[in-house]
Amino acid sequence: MEIFYHYDGSFDGFLSCVFDSYVHKEIPAGFSSGEDGVFTLFDSRTVPTDPGHAARVLRKVTALSPEAAVLLRRGFLTCLPEKERYLFRLIAKLLQEGPGFLRNRSDETLYPVIRAVQHLNGEVHLLKGFVRFSDLGGVLGGEIEPKNRVLPALGGHFTARFHNERFFLYDRTHREALFHVPGQSVIRPLSAFQMAPPDEAEARYRLLWKRFYDTIAIKERENPRLRMSNMPKRYWGTMTEFQREDFFRPSSAGAVLPPPIPSGLPPGPEAP
Amino acid sequence: MDVLEKLTILTDAAKYDAACTSSGGTRTAKKGYIGNTSTALAGCCHTFAADGRCVTLLKVLLTNRCVYDCKYCVNRRSNETRRAAFTPEELADLTIQFYRRNYIEGLFLSSGVFRSPDYTTELMIRALSLLREQYRFNGYIHAKAIPGTSPELVERLGFLADRLSVNIELPSEAGLKSLAPDKTKGAILAPMRQIQSRNRQSREELVKFRHAPRFAPAGQSTQLIVGATQDTDFHILRLTQGLYDRYALKRVFYSAYVPVVEHALLPARDAKPPLLREHRLYQADWLLRFYGFRAEELLDEDSQDFDTRVDPKCSWALAHLDFFPVEVNTAAYERLLRIPGVGVTSARRILSARRAGPLHIENLKKLGVVMKRAQYFLTASGKMAEGLRFTPDSLLQGLIAAERPLLPQQEAVQLSLFEQTEPA
């Protein structure tokens, strides 16, 4: 029987749907999460998130193939439309056939997932370089606008590199932020955020960087197409060197405060 | 002079150095220190300049004052240009503050020769020690070793930096003599040899003592200027191969010569930098390092320069048509790598995928094979791509067309002009 699943949008929630589909011998016709109900001709059902069920599914997948488990975690962060359906098909095939097909990247069940994960990984790799922080009175703050939900995969890089700093990184697309204080980090939803204007020192370093960027290019070799293919324009919006003049002008109000860091930070979720 | 002005002058003077990589670093985060080095195999680009080149390090000169008078160089003694020098504090502050904001992966410090190579290197050591010890910087540092520096100073520099480089710049001794009279081949090769043996020794010590200090753990690189002298591609590629074989270099960089001065021995001031030639050399360099090619397979005494129309691998394939087609289901890795359009990654994927079952033509694109080029040179389960018909001539045209959109625009224009004037 084909059933449409509603769940809470979490990874555990999705795995709970997978668990249910096996218990009730249902074939998922589709998945939805969040407030927006989807109109569907199929029977639909809300699946409550059960960490125990989720853990059992993940254990089974990991036992069959640790790489598949990584692919699932990462795949769930991607912006692949109907990602749940593709991930479900991957799990179903793994359970039915065993892990042999995972060797063949061109396999029709594996390929869409691996492409989506590659897209995510590519975005994570680029953002390691393209993220820009501002010093807001001793706390570093940055913003990104990624297509995929990169923070869980990107966080580890910055928390290792800036382990001594207090910083936050806001994801405009998914309205969530990574907060870090020495020793601890966490990802929390953050519905709205407006970056404060810079103080004297911050404005000066922005200007120094902009000048360095403009000077390092060799005029005789100018190549806008190459630059664009290496660094697509959609990343430019949050990068210091592409901002307009007022971005480099200090605010007379002086240093401004970053959003409050949640108190009693629990250790952040492990990046897959 | 304020820091903004100094930064402008000393960046402008450093921009012709092509090397800007941050790969091979081994520093992990350390308590009380700032930063680490990227774990990504390919390093990390923080932005791309208007010329499309990756910017990963704060690439500046300590000073652009120079006692040498190398004819090709903007910083030569006789050039009337503004001179500046960073203090160690200014440089350390810039590095740290840029690093915290994630503008950069670290520092690339080079310098003009101020008074003498030893004096300059001592200044560099002072600046880098301050950065490492007082500012507690644990990110990537690439430092230039200046030819003629005494071995004791190169040794100290190597313990502060992740990578060292000695620039050969002019690919032949004749070029050096006429254009860089203050440098000799011996003075350039001596520190390269020292860095190589010291690096090897340091790695051996690390096996025995986990906390032994690391000497230039990311190895060394060099740069060759292309187009300032009459040296052929064959000469440059053989030199490159020798450097990889005998000096264990991590990278050889090529820099298309940008005319910065009018001089009888140099290309005219309005000459365009030979970007396509530089591009072909990089392609060939990859073939040497990752594809198991030797310089002598790609060029020889009779054809000393690369074909401008197709890349070196296609060029090799066209001259060895009897080697093809290669059957992807059975060929060894080394053979797969010789197919134009198959790279290191797609060759590995083919090896892995064919263990799960026989491969067909339609699988190959999903494995990352560039079929536009590869289709002429391979079979899958005994079959070539459906409907593919070609003659040696249309094969060449097909390969030229496949690469065209990937070339820098300027080059594509140059090429089509070139074709028009050439008799068919």
Describe what this molecule looks like in 3D.
With 272 residues, chain A is of the alpha/beta class. Chain A is 40% helix and 16% strand. Chain A has helices at residues 11-23, 51-64, 66-76, 83-97, 110-130, 151-161, 200-216, 224-230; strands at 2-7, 27-33, 43-46, 133-136, 139-144, 167-171, 176-181, 184-189. In chain A, the strands form 2 sheets. A 5-stranded mixed sheet of chain A has the order 4-5-6-7-8, covered by helices on one side. Chain A has a 3-stranded parallel sheet with strand order 2-1-3. In chain A, a hairpin with a 4-residue loop joins β6 (167-171) and β7. The model of chain A is unreliable at 266-272 (pLDDT under 50). With 424 residues, chain B is an alpha/beta fold. Chain B has 16 helices and 10 strands. Chain B has helices at 3-12, 88-100, 117-134, 151-160, 173-179, 185-208, 233-247, 275-290, 295-298, 312-319, 333-336, 344-353, 361-364, 371-374, 392-403, 409-421; strands at 47-48, 54-55, 57-61, 106-110, 140-144, 163-165, 220-226, 251-256, 326-327, 378-379. Chain B has a 6-stranded parallel sheet with strand order 3-4-5-6-7-8. In chain B, strands 1-2 form a two-stranded antiparallel ribbon. Chain B has a two-stranded parallel ribbon with strand order 9-10. Residues 412-424 of chain B have low confidence and may be disordered. Chains A and B meet through α5, β4, α6, α7 and α8 of A and α1, β1, β2, α2 and α12 of B.
